Amino acid sequence: MKSILIIEDDATVAEAVSFVLERNGYETTHVETGSRASELLKKQHFCGALIDVWLGSEDGLDVLARLRADGNTLPVVIMSGGGPGHTLESVSTRADVLDACAVLFKPFTDEELLDAVNRSCPDDSCAAD
């Protein structure tokens, strides 16, 4: 089963995303911070990750930048509702520079979520052990 890491500080959003993914054959793990995600990625294999831009006091794009700086090539989908300093255009541009597979703008549909994750994790070779 493909395992997806969800980095999202809003429990309601994380639960909704998990529900859709699990209903469609994915295994999900949810963390609320980039530091917790970094710890977990050292111990556990994931097929991909969903990272929210607004993580309380953290910026999800900075979390992705740290992962890339550490050499982590995990397929990532960025989730964003926009906001001050994070226009839809700026999020898309920075996500592209950081090699994100896709950007989902909230609110997004179940179909958009599944499409982005399926494109990011296209084969079964990354299934969790």
From TrEMBL:
Alphabetical list of Gene3D superfamilies matching this protein: 3.40.50.2300
Residues of the Response regulatory domain: 3-121
Keywords associated with the record: Phosphoprotein
SUPFAM superfamilies assigned: CheY-like
Sites bearing 4-aspartylphosphate, chain numbering: D52
Entries under InterPro entries matching the protein: Bact_response_regulator, CheY-like_superfamily, Sig_transdc_resp-reg_receiver
Pfam families attached to this UniProt entry: Response_reg (PF00072)
GO biological process: phosphorelay signal transduction system
Protein name: Response regulator
